[in-house]
Amino acid sequence: MKTLTASLLLSLACAGSGLAADTYESIESGNTLLAKCVGPPETQLICAGYTAGIYDMINLLETTGAVAKLHCFPPGVTRLQIHDVVIRYLQDHAEQRHLGAAALVRDALQEAWPCRR
Fold this sequence. Notes:
The chain is mainly alpha-helical. 59% of the residues lie in helices and 0% in strands.
């Protein structure tokens, strides 16, 4: 679990560009995550936990200033919204689904809720 947390932190913290092309070792790809997200209810729960965990980690890192703020989440975002945003992004970006799921989830959330500059 510590390795997974460290890998996720590293992949998110090193992601200055906001592009899924980040290279890191991932246990989950966009392909495997999408299969879980649209699969039977038990795999959808895995998807929901994975995506909510990444949302929470991004929110924590950005709120504490550990990484630059790239996401501006509105109050009251739900797991269902996160789930829907991620599925739509993965379906719309099939050419990227072989990449690591954590970066793809990050990019999906940034596309949905970018900070206005």
